[in-house]
């Protein structure tokens, strides 16, 4: 192949014929287009079914095709499946040829499928995300310059498949592909791409593979301190015949709108190295991937907020900070189990407090007090922050200078002001730049807490933290980084 196959963030157009699976002989010519913002759109030169059926569906009749499955074949013979397809336009030309447009958020090229959940036919999948080579420490190109001969030699080495981690239900490996192109416009181009592979114990569905790929991509994002979008998912399907009795596994490519924030950031600005690379993570704890999946449900609400604030480029600074603090609170609530007082004592305390409400108290006030007592055993934000900093101080053997008492008070006051807009707090809040760096400090706290939950010791994290230019400064000093 001259170039890598299209990924989730690429745009392309395919000509072909299409049909509904229940009417495989009713083929209609059409043009399939895909782009990452709008998903897949199928423009048919004609309509599915008889003209009378089209009239019936259009003018208030049957709506069986509201979420249809459409199969097709490209001009080059590749199978196509559009799942959850919706008819968005149907036009009758009198005279002329009727036509219709279908849209779908889930496009599969390489197989005919009816469901992303029910067909367990894929024994392996491969996926990529932004900066995967950096996270996996892959450097496929090496160059040598001979000054006497004035020659530059470049060696491209295809990464071989290497075991990365093992889970009870599947194995994860890293692998690469090499593509060359000698078109006149470029003279000669070599692309070497890195992928991660998922091999379950038995074939699984498309959504099963997608779910695991996204979770691993999110693990890499967390270890990098920023969101790294999933850029491709390729599955190996059932064997297809090549002729002469030969077969090979089908190559199935997945396309969908997986836009996080405003989509993928195409700018290639200089980035810090990951806080912890993939090989380092596994070296520190070979069971880190297993622990990530085992605890994912507990992490999930906090991680959703975490990737919102690290993935969305356009967001008001105060909103980003509020979401970051919420993520930290949710994570601490779900993983620490801390309360202000022992649970049984709190039950007795609550009963006593409710009983102490004067009988003539207004119903609205009685209701409010009961609600306050119900959540009174939850630590406040200030208490949670103190607990987190104290636990990190114990683990790392030193107090993080970037999280002193003054900063914690400012953080609490800023959260309270932008939640309630109390006038007495307006002079005690962080300014815009301060809120930006406070958000990054909260991101750092969350990252360290999750790494600890993955079994990474503080002694292993400390040297990694020092090499990360931004986080090293945020950890050590309360000043704004330079």
From TrEMBL:
Apea-like HEPN domain mapped to chain residues: 322-458
Every ApeA N-terminal domain range: 15-257
Domain of life: Bacteria
The name this protein goes by in its record: ApeA N-terminal domain-containing protein
Native source organism of the sequence: Aminobacter aganoensis
């Amino acid at each position: 192949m001259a170039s890598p196959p299209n990924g989730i963030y690429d745009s392309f157009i395919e000509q072909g014929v299409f049909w509904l699976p229940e009417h495989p002989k009713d083929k209609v010519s059409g043009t399939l287009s895909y782009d990452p913002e709008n998903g897949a759109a199928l423009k048919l030169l004609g309509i599915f079914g008889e003209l009378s059926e089209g009239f019936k569906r259009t003018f208030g009749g049957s709506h069986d095709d509201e979420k249809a499955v459409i199969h097709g074949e490209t001009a080059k013979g590749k199978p196509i499946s559009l799942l959850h397809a919706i008819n968005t336009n149907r036009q009758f030309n009198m005279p002329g040829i009727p036509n219709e447009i279908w849209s779908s958020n889930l496009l599969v090229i390489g197989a005919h499928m009816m469901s992303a959940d029910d067909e367990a036919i894929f024994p392996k999948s491969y996926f990529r995300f932004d900066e995967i080579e950096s996270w996996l420490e892959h450097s496929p190109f090496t160059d040598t310059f001979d000054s006497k001969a004035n020659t530059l030699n470049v060696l491209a080495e295809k990464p071989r498949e290497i075991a990365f981690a093992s889970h009870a239900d599947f194995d994860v490996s890293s692998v690469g592909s090499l593509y060359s192109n000698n078109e006149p416009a470029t003279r000669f181009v070599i692309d070497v791409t890195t992928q991660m592979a998922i091999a379950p114990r038995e074939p699984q569905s498309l959504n099963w593979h997608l779910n695991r790929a996204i979770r691993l991509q999110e693990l890499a994002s967390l270890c990098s301190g920023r969101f790294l979008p999933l850029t491709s998912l390729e599955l190996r399907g059932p064997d297809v015949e090549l002729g002469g009795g030969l077969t090979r596994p089908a190559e199935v490519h997945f396309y969908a709108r997986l836009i996080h924030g405003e989509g993928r950031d195409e700018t290639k600005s200089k980035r810090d190295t990951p806080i912890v690379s993939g090989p380092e993570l596994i070296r520190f704890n070979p069971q880190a991937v297993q622990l990530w999946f085992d605890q994912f449900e507990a992490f999930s609400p906090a991680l959703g907020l975490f990737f919102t604030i690290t993935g969305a480029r356009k967001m008001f600074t105060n909103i980003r900070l509020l979401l970051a603090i919420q993520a930290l609170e949710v994570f601490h609530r779900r993983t620490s189990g801390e309360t202000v007082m022992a649970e049984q004592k709190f039950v007795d305390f609550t009963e006593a407090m409710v009983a102490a409400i004067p009988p003539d108290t207004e119903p609205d006030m009685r209701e409010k007090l009961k609600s306050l007592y119900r959540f009174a055993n939850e630590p406040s934000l200030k208490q949670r922050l103190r607990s987190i900093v104290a636990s990190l101080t114990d683990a790392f053997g030193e107090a993080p200078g970037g999280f002193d008492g003054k900063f914690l008070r400012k953080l609490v006051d800023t959260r309270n002001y932008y939640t309630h807009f109390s006038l007495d707090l307006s002079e005690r809040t962080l300014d815009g730049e301060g809120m930006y760096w406070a958000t990054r400090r909260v991101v750092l706290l969350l990252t360290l807490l999750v790494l600890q939950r993955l079994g990474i010791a503080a002694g292993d994290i400390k040297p990694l933290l020092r090499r990360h230019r931004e986080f090293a400064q945020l950890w050590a000093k309360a000043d704004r980084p330079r």
